[in-house]
Every structure is written in structure tokens, then in C-alpha cells.
Amino acid sequence: MIPKDLSQDIKTRLQSINGQVNGLVRLLDESSDPEKILVQFKAVKNALDKAHHLLLDETYRKTLAIKISETVEACPGNCGNEERIEFIRKQFPDLELDSLTEKMKEIDALKAKLENHKNA
């Protein structure tokens, strides 16, 4: 679930983008200067990219933080994966968006391995 404040922030951004798109349509209707049109297209694209990044960053970071926490709890100190779990935990604040999904897969695999070992 997306936090209410994040959802509101993204909706506000999208409303602003909608205004920019309407302005772009007006520029096209007026056969405006192509350079102005290009600038507006870039502004709309950048604004949409920022809103998209904000959603993914917040959602993925929160999910990864929860997964790391659950995995740390599942490994009380002698599970054989302590060093890797701690390495991911320490990397967490500095992870770039494009590596978040990779780390989520890795921490999921470690957690599953711990659960399988516990149930064996």
C-alpha cells in the first residue's frame, strides 16, 4: 500500500503535469514556436520521470527495508549468511534505484534459504 502522504504528493505532481500537457496542447493549437514546444515536452517528461522515480524509490526502499529486517530476525547470529545479510543492510542507505530490485531478490533468496534450513 502506498502511504497517504506519498500518494498525495504524486497526485499533486500529476495534476501539475496535466496543466503542463494542457499548455503544450495550446502551444500546438497556436502553431507556436517549435523551440517552446520542445521545451514544454522536456518539462513534462522530466516531471513525469520525477513522479515515477519518487513512487518506485519510496515503494522499493520500504519493501527492501522490511525484507532486510525480517531476514535479520530469521538469522539470530549463526545461520551462515550473517556477513552477506549485514553487507546488504549496510549498503541499504546508499543503494541506487536500479539496484534495489536486485538486492530485494538477493535478500528474498537468503530469507528463503533460512526458512528452508529452519524447517528441515
Automatic annotation (TrEMBL):
Pfam families: Trns_repr_metal (PF02583)
Family annotation (InterPro entries): Metal_Tscrpt_repr, Metal_Tscrpt_repr_sf
One of the GO biological process terms: negative regulation of DNA-templated transcription
Gene Ontology MF terms: DNA binding; metal ion binding
Family: Belongs to the FrmR/RcnR family.
Protein name per UniProt: Metal-sensitive transcriptional repressor
Organism phylogeny: Bacteria, Pseudomonadati, Bacteroidota, Flavobacteriia, Flavobacteriales
